[in-house]
Specification:
Length: 272
């Protein structure tokens, strides 16, 4: 049976973690797969793995620094010139920064915003007109449960993801009836290298996510793929994360501030 659902899928941040696993699990549904990241050697290894397993899926490797606006435009022009405009755009690439905002390195914060917000917005803006013209397309934005509540020590990351979730909802409304849909995926903690990369050398211990909230990468992505193929507007993988966020988002804001403040002060005492 032909499982192809997409002609061309483009996945950013595909060199590791969620992006790499999404590439593996989406490949059987795609005729062509464009995987994008800065670490070209990892992309090449992933492309070889997918091609050996699924020779009917063409895999294209594109090295790209998503924090570079000029590079994004050149990449878009290259894709369009090769008639590879995606009908599935997965904006997955993201960066984090763990620590207090006052002591953050500005260039690091700027890069988090550039990759998490501006590159996502820019790529969507670059490819959306062709999707609308073809009346065919799906934009998948990988957000986070952090987008739903303010989180001290990862405040900038949480704020960028709040943009992603809100933008996805607005865009979905704008595109109604135009043949293009939008899905926002809001995962909770997943076992990847993301947390280690987000750590600063001087912060000390990372934020400890409760073990009951953690999800294995493969099963979390399996749920994501199921949600996007069903064109769900917004999805949180995992029963427990969904339940926790349902409770957290219904708390009055003063109570939420108090709860988050207690946790933050307890962590700072441990660090000192």
């Amino acid at each position: 049976m032909n499982q192809t659902k997409f002609q061309t899928a483009l996945i950013t941040g595909a060199s590791s973690g969620i992006g790499a696993e999404l590439s593996r699990q989406l490949a059987p549904m795609c005729e062509r797969l464009i995987i994008v990241a800065r670490r070209e050697n990892r992309l090449e290894s992933l492309a070889k793995e997918i091609s050996e397993r699924l020779p009917m899926c063409q895999v294209f490797v594109e090295k790209l620094d998503l924090a570079d606006e000029k590079a994004r435009i050149e990449f878009s022009n290259k894709i369009k010139a090769r008639s590879l405009v995606p009908d599935l755009l997965v904006n997955n690439a993201g960066l984090g920064d763990h620590g207090e905002i006052a002591t953050a390195d500005w260039e690091r914060l700027r890069r988090v915003v550039e990759v998490n917000v501006l590159s996502l917005l820019h790529l969507t803006h670059l490819f959306l007109p062709e999707m609308i013209s073809a009346r065919r397309g799906l934009v998948v934005n990988i957000s986070s449960i952090a987008s739903l509540i303010p989180l001290p020590e990862i405040g900038v990351y949480a704020a960028t993801k709040a943009f992603v979730t809100s933008f996805s909802e607005a865009l979905r409304i704008e595109l109604a009836g135009k043949g293009v849909e939008v899905t926002a995926i809001c995962p909770g903690p997943i076992r990847t290298e993301f947390g280690e990369v987000a750590m600063r050398p001087d912060v000390g211990e990372p934020i400890r996510n409760p073990s009951f909230m953690m999800m294995p990468l493969e099963s979390a992505v399996r749920e994501m793929v199921g949600a996007l193929t069903k064109r769900k507007p917004r999805y949180i993988p995992g029963v427990i994360p969904r339940l926790v966020m349902m409770i957290a988002t219904t708390l009055p804001l003063p109570m939420l501030r108090a709860v988050l403040g207690l946790g933050y002060r307890a962590r700072r005492r441990n660090v000192r």
